[in-house]
Amino acid sequence: MTLSEFDLIKRYFSGGLYQREDVTLGIGDDCALLQVPAGQELAVTIDTLVEGVHFFPGADPEALGHKALAVSLSDLAAMGATPAWATLALTLPRSDSDWLQAFSRGLGNISRRYQVQLIGGDTTRGSLSITLQLQGFVEPGRALRRNGARVGDLIGVTGTVGDAGLALLALQGRYDAGDALGWVRDRLERPQPRVAAGRALVGLARAAIDISDGLLADLGHICERSGTGATLHLEQLPLSPPVVRYLGEKGDWSMPLSAGDDYELCFSVPPRVQRAVERAIRDTGCAVSWVGVIDPDPGIRCLLPGGTALAVDAGGYEHFC
Ligand code: ADP
Ligand code: MG
């Protein structure tokens, strides 16, 4: 069935998604009208998912709806912000109602869970591409930035790293993940943004980032912006059983360190708040691991169990290299 742009928006995006009281005017006019709460700063982020670059052609549209919002929620989480409003620029090769229905179901489910309202967007024809902008609130001056790490800080990581990278290898036919395929694939396609953990870090962490390009690259951003370096103890990396198995078979540390798409948080805290941070993050239902320390020498040193240094490529996905 072919729908006009107008019908398509009305049918799949204007009803049914989460509604918020601070939206004076949502989808349907030239602009949305929004009430920014008094005494809050607006945190704004945007991300694009392009077919063939960020996801495989033919990817499950429901998972894409989830991921489109999840990756932006992860950015707000990394700043310690509370999500509120989203806009969506959708470029579609054709108006395929099955695809749109599944996409809006995926987007709707995660938007209800995080109380995000879709307040507008744009719809165009072309190669499949999904751009979502997300706005949220944070107390002025309290956002978690990348530039606050200090020498001696402990480096924490939520959840586990490398699961999405393993799924990618498996889907590319480069590794047999066996029974674990379903679980790692879910980690790649339906990441769970650490919004509550990010909120819990406000006032405790000195710097934070979400791990989208791999732990080494993203911790590298914290170090660069903070004028520090870091040492990682690889035996302390939080790894799921499938990634432990992969490492045992291949010995390839660069995968969990550099593969990306983890959407966990990496942060630095002064040692005196270590226990408070553990409690605060665990109260959100999320695991936390201490993987290393911030130190003065530029660069990131990775120490293997036993203390020998491992040379790993800084990695991180670069679109224009
Ligand atoms: P305009 O021509 O003023 O840009 P559009 O016809 O593009 O208006 O959009 C009409 C309304 O539908 C606007 O409120 C716009 O924000 C909303 N909209 C368009 N595309 C989307 C989309 N993919 N998701 C959510 N809202 C959308
Ligand atoms: Mg438009």
What would you say this structure looks like, in words?
The chain contains 10 helices and 13 strands. By secondary structure, the chain is of the alpha+beta class. The model has no long low-confidence stretch (mean pLDDT 94). Strand 4, helix 3 and strand 5 form a beta-alpha-beta unit. 33% of the residues lie in helices and 25% in strands. Helix 2 runs parallel beside helix 3 and helix 4 packs across helix 5. It binds adenosine-5'-diphosphate (ADP) and magnesium ion (MG). Adenosine-5'-diphosphate binds next to helix 1, strand 4 and strand 5.
List unreliable stretches of 5+ residues.
Answer: none
Element order: H for helix, E for strand? HEEEHEHEEEHHHEHEHHEHEEE
Q: Kindly, what is the distance between the CA atoms of the first and last residues, rounded to a whole number of angstroms?
A: 40 Å
Q: What integer is the average pLDDT? A: 94
* Structural class by sheet pairing and helices: alpha+beta
Largest sheet: 7 strands, mixed
User: What's the Cα radius of gyration?
Assistant: 20 Å
Instruction: Tell me the number of strands.
Output: 13
What's the helix count? 10
Strand percentage lies at 25-35%
The helical percent reads 25-40%
Bound molecules: adenosine-5'-diphosphate, magnesium ion
Q: Kindly report the spatial arrangement of strands forming the biggest sheet.
A: 8-10-7-11-9-12-13
Overall outline: globular
List the helices and strands and how they pair.
Elements: H1 5-14, E1 23-25, E2 33-34, E3 41-50, H2 61-79, E4 82-92, H3 97-113, E5 117-125, E6 129-138, E7 154-158, H4 163-171, H5 181-189, H6 195-201, E8 207-211, H7 215-226, E9 229-233, H8 241-250, H9 254-258, E10 264-269, H10 274-282, E11 288-295, E12 299-303, E13 309-310
Parallel strand pairs: 4-5, 9-12
Antiparallel strand pairs: 1-2, 3-6, 4-6, 7-10, 7-11, 8-10, 9-11, 12-13
This protein binds adenosine-5'-diphosphate and magnesium ion (MG).
